[in-house]
């Protein structure tokens, strides 16, 4: 995979099925009505539309699925997806056939995933993310940990970052007797989409700065799917696509305001991760920061900030790849009817496979 890949020339406007357009419009409308002018969220309204997927009561082909509690006092938990029938080549290149319903004997990489939603919406149980994480687990023969973190505005910065880091420490501590014994924590990937990608970045920065405090867990790859970064400056894509579904300028401005500490603007380090010389120098000194995959969409207003993130990592001497889907709207991967969705899952698979083989 080259450092920068563009799949096709960008069309004048996104080419989407009516089904996708309606779904994007509905979700945008619901979140608009749920966002109150006083900086709160109507959770009851969101609960009517954010359909949750329960842990299956019956066996699921190829997977064991369970919920693991980390800290009940802050509703910190994760949904665990463990492959049980590893018959194809895993990312490590090994082939192991396991009886259906049993735990695979093969050591499997671990993919810790943070869901999107602007820090304020959705959860690890949201049906869309349940589908995505099942697919990640099956297609990568990887143990997937989907983190349920606290949401803003009830819990502002840095709560989400603390939750992410604490999940890493919890997994590394081996406190969870139900965590798969065949999990290879030396082949750990962090990733997420949108705000979840932002959380994954900050959790990775903290973990790699403190790598000597981990016993087994080692992050060898970071996956950034349409990451949510920002700043006070308005970029070309933000202006041109200011009325885009899900992440229009009024929506993202509101999300940053209710997430960031009171009195802080979007140049805060949570949003503008390379916004100061100090942050750049800290990244240059972070020798354990892993190889990173950045995915952007041509019709995503966030794409210019994501590209700056990619460029910032390169300037700091980090290994980083950029994939752009010119027809990609924000959250395109949630819609299996879009051709870019399959392409993205293949890119993620290839990235994990490449890093596991090198390991």
Helix/strand/pairing category: alpha/beta
Sequence of strands across the biggest β-sheet: 1-9-8-7-6-4-5-3-2
Strand content: 15-25%
What is the mean predicted local confidence, pLDDT? 94
Helix content: 25-40%
Shape descriptor reads globular
Give a short account of the largest sheet. Answer: 9 strands, mixed
Order of helices and strands: EHHEEEHEHEHEHHHEHEH
**Alpha plus pi helix count:** 10
pLDDT below 50 for ≥5 consecutive residues: which ranges?
95-101
Radius of gyration: 19 Å
Chain-wise SSE layout:
Blueprint: E1 4-6, H1 18-34, H2 43-49, E2 63-71, E3 76-83, E4 108-114, H3 127-140, E5 143-148, H4 159-173, E6 183-193, H5 195-209, E7 219-225, H6 236-240, H7 249-259, H8 277-285, E8 291-299, H9 303-315, E9 320-329, H10 339-358
Parallel strand pairs: 1-9, 4-5, 4-6, 6-7, 7-8, 8-9
Antiparallel strand pairs: 2-3, 3-5
Entry keywords:
hydrolase activity, 359 residues, 10 helices, AB_hydrolase_3, AB_hydrolase_fold, Carboxylest/Gibb_receptor, Alpha/beta hydrolase fold-3 domain-containing protein, 9-stranded mixed sheet, alpha/beta, 9 strands
What does this structure look like?
35% of the residues lie in helices and 19% in strands. It has helices spanning 18-34, 43-49, 127-140, 159-173, 195-209, 236-240, 249-259, 277-285, 303-315, 339-358; strands at 4-6, 63-71, 76-83, 108-114, 143-148, 183-193, 219-225, 291-299, 320-329. The protein has a nine-stranded mixed sheet, with helices on both faces. The chain is globular. GO terms for molecular function: hydrolase activity. Residues 112-333 form the Alpha/beta hydrolase fold-3 domain. InterPro entries: AB_hydrolase_3, AB_hydrolase_fold, Carboxylest/Gibb_receptor. This is Alpha/beta hydrolase fold-3 domain-containing protein.
